[in-house]
Amino acid sequence: MLRKHRNKLVVLIVLIAAGITLQVFDLFNPQELISIGRDYADQWWLIAVIILLQVLLFTFALAGSQFLWVAATLYPPLTATFILAAGATLGGLSAYLFSAKLTEDWSARVQGSRVYRLLEKQDQFFTLLAMRIMPAFPHSLINYSSGILRIKWHYFIPATIIGIGAKSYVYAKVIYNATSADALTELLKFSTYGPPLLISAFIITGLIIKYRLDKNRT
Predict the structure, then answer these.
(1) Domain hosting residue 85, numbered range
(2) Into how many domains does the chain fold?
(3) What angle do CA 69, 37, 62 make, to 5 degrees?
């Protein structure tokens, strides 16, 4: 048992080290990846490579979302949306399974906790959807916490596809139509990030109202 816990600790240390290494050496610099990708953008396999790289990064709680810039620059919005939604969904599932395996020893305690029972009573699909759509919300946090809490897949998968797909299309359209110089400026405008933020806030408000009503009935 002690050896098992030690192995999991080693895995966590390796993940932290990998994240620091990627950050320090800038191994997945979007600008460099875009530069390389332009030469192969007409090749079908590049789409598969971008999806697989996202899966790899999301699995280990690394910055898979930065491939938004790569996909949205190289491909039209609909194609970019497919790439980003596929990579984030498959990567999310992989991260879910990885975190569930890593925490299987104390999952029973988690599921018996008051916090878990409280979350279980809520509409998990809309809770996940609100977090997925919310601008700048860390997807790795959603993936790992979903795995730890054993959120049901029929909530997790649709919420990921719809949430990431909707948000990615909005951002991809802006990046694809903008020049490299003003893409970031356009993304930071409220007219770009406002709609996803408002949708997320609307869903969260609805969940709070539902929680209050359910609480009053009990």
Answers:
(1) 27-217
(2) 1
(3) 50
Mean pLDDT of the chain: 80
Cα–Cα distance for residue pair 75/98, rounded to 1 Å? 31
Question: Secondary structure of 52-102 in the HEC alphabet?
Answer: HHHHHHHHCCCCHHHHHHHHHHHCCHHHHHHHHHHHHHHHHHHHHHHHHHH
Cα torsion 197, 202, 203, 208 to 10°: value is 120
| Residue in this structure with the two tokens 């003003």, named with its chain if needed | 182
Do the Cβ atoms of 164 and 180 come closer than 8 Å?
Answer: no
Cα angle value 96/83/180 (rounded, 5°)? 120
What's this model's pTM, rounded to 2 decimal places?
A: 0.81
**Structural domain includes residue 17:** no
How far apart CA 144 and CA 103 sit, in angstroms, is 10
Pair of tokens at residue 189: 């405008």
Q: Which residues of 3-36 are buried (b: 16+ CB within 10 A; e: fewer)?
A: eeeeeeeeeeeebeeebeebeeeeebebeebbee
In a domain, 8, yes or no: no
Residue 206 lies in a domain: yes
Does residue 96 lie within any of the structural domains?
Answer: yes
How many DSSP H helices and E strands does the chain contain? 12, 0
Number of other CB atoms surrounding residue 209 within 10 Å: 10
pLDDT digits (tens, 9 = 90+) for 51-99: 999 998 898 888 788 899 999 999 999 999 999 999 999 999 999 998 8
